[in-house]
């Protein structure tokens, strides 16, 4: 299935010019990209690249291929229903969520008829649907026409991509920055798409470790590069705002695949360039 998508991606129009890779700025994120000349020539491309799992221990999430046959990528159980529903069904969904939120407010001892809370259930319903809109993203739309043939085999890094996600254990936000690096193998991805990829997985119920891994695995599947490195540093509201008040603490996770995993020098170069060393 993943092969089928790759095939379709490789058949996309490759004639558009590569975006300038000096600096990328867009709504919701700011990223700088850089390449380095000091990178040691890789010994070999990642082999058996059908699944990056061959270099990773198995986990329930990564056992499945990054991209389904229909372009969804690790969708939630109700993702297809959300994508396919008409306007009426959408409103019904919003209404059911609002009703549930109203119950929560009442159970908190609040007066749901006071002015400030009158439309809060509806607002919250819409906000939650927005925070989880990544389930509706189709990776083909995300990547659309942005895989380019390019004879570039040096490290490409986009760092400081802002992400806002929801911790699935507490349904409260965690947010921070993602740094993505890869070493191409004849194919590069439009730089802004790396941020789109991060956004797609961040706008779901997540744990930071899985988010890190999903971005890395999807990129590996799309480009079959020689290596992928993803580092996320994030602040979790569930951690800093309750219990032991560890304000100011941040959580760093990383996922290194292919050459980044094999070569300590490459890995350290990446970590140095994203300021994590
Ligand atoms: Zn949490």
Question: In words, what does this structure look like?
Answer:
One of its GO terms (biological process) is tetrahydrofolate biosynthetic process. Helices cover 36% and strands 22% of the residues. By secondary structure, the chain is α+β, with helices and mostly antiparallel strands. Among the domains are: 78-134, GTP Cyclohydrolase I, Chain A, domain 1 (Orthogonal Bundle), CATH 1.10.286; 147-274, GTP cyclohydrolase I, C-terminal domain/NADPH-dependent 7-cyano-7-deazaguanine reductase, N-terminal domain (GTP Cyclohydrolase I, domain 2), CATH 3.30.1130. Strands 1, 2, 4, 5, 7, 8 and 9 form a seven-stranded mixed sheet that branches. A hairpin with a 4-residue loop joins strand 4 and strand 5 (172-183). Helix 3 (87-107) packs across helix 4 (120-131) and helix 6 (191-202) packs across helix 7. The longest helix has 21 residues, at 87-107. The radius of gyration is 20 Å and the shape is globular. The two termini are 38 Å apart. Residues 1-42 and 44-49 have low confidence and may be disordered. Bound molecules: zinc ion. Zinc ion binds at residues 167, 169-170, 236, 238.
């Amino acid at each position: 299935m993943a092969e089928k998508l790759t095939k379709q991606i490789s058949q996309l129009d490759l004639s558009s010019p590569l975006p300038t890779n000096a600096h990328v700025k867009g709504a919701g994120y700011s990223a700088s990209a850089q390449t380095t000349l000091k990178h040691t020539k890789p010994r070999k491309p990642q082999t058996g690249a059908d699944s990056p799992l061959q270099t990773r221990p198995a986990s329930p999430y990564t056992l499945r291929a990054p991209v389904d046959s229909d372009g969804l990528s690790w969708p939630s159980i109700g993702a297809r229903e959300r994508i396919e529903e008409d306007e009426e069904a959408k409103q019904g969904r919003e209404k059911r969520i609002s009703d549930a939120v109203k119950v929560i407010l009442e159970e908190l001892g609040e007066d749901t008829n006071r002015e400030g809370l009158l439309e809060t259930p509806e607002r919250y319903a819409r906000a939650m649907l927005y925070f989880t809109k990544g389930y509706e993203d189709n990776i083909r739309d995300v990547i659309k026409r942005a895989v380019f043939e390019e004879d570039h085999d040096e490290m490409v890094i986009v760092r400081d991509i802002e992400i806002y996600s929801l911790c699935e254990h507490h349904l409260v936000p965690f947010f921070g920055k993602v740094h993505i690096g890869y070493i191409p193998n004849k194919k590069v991805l439009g730089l802004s798409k790396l941020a789109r990829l991060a956004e797609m997985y961040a706008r779901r119920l997540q744990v930071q470790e899985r988010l890190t891994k999903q971005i890395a695995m999807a990129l590996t599947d799309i480009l079959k590069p020689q290596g992928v490195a993803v580092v996320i540093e994030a602040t979790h509201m569930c951690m800093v705002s309750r219990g032991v008040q560890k304000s100011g603490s941040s959580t760093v996770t990383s996922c290194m695949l292919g050459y980044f995993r094999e070569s300590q020098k490459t890995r350290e170069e990446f970590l140095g360039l994203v300021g994590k060393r």
